[in-house]
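Holo model, zinc ion. Inputs:
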Amino acid sequence: MKLKLLPSTFNENGGYSAGQHLTTFLIDGRVALDAGSLAMAASENERRSVRDIVLTHAHLDHIAGLPLFVDDLFASLTEPIRVHATREVLEVLERDVFNWSVYPRFSELHNENGPVLKYRPFTLGSEFSIGGLKFHSIPVDHKVPSSGFIINDGKAAIAFSGDTSSSAAFWGKVNERTDVKAVLIECAFPDRLAELAGASHHLTPATLKAELEQLHLDAQVCVINIKPMYRDEVIMELRETLDRVITIIEPVREYHF
Ligand SMILES: [Zn+2]
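Output:
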């Protein structure tokens, strides 16, 4: 399985930088996991290939690029863009984003080939497939209804937390599996902002260390969703706090699992 984080911040020369304001992971170049920077950072090839978007939750940094992505492709789509999300997330999209005031309600619009946007609801804890990829949703503990996933391509699986605080349910499901090669887990804030992390249901290096004690598989640990303002600080603390090798996921690089 191929995984790539799309970039969402710029350096002084106009190129991308490592900070991650927005979240979009592309799986095998064709399924988007969240859509924060999808419209802004997908290549032309990726723009042509991605027709399925799976959402963890409805926070802005995970959906900001979705309306613009549909807008960009509106006239050229020969099949609808399919958004896979829980009913709670889809309701937020329809009520607060695609409401004709913030952006057009694309779910009611057609181009000459048919509908441009379709919703594929799933329930937390359920399983669904997209092409050859199997998604197993796991409810995680964030400020709003949120899903993590175990994603299997027939050969290997990765576990993806999305945004979460401590989540025994996540580790319980991960430990049940024998195919999980990598765990991608968030760490949004440094330890000095533990109070803010607690209030917003995110992890810090110290709480991530406690989470990883619940991981009983021999899987690669990859850290994602570090707030860009604290990136260097969080990475330094992670290196000091954790007694294992971790991978900090960087934008644009392709990771193979
Ligand atoms: Zn969030």
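The chain has two domains: 1-9+20-121, 124-249. The radius of gyration is 18 Å.
Archived with the compound record.
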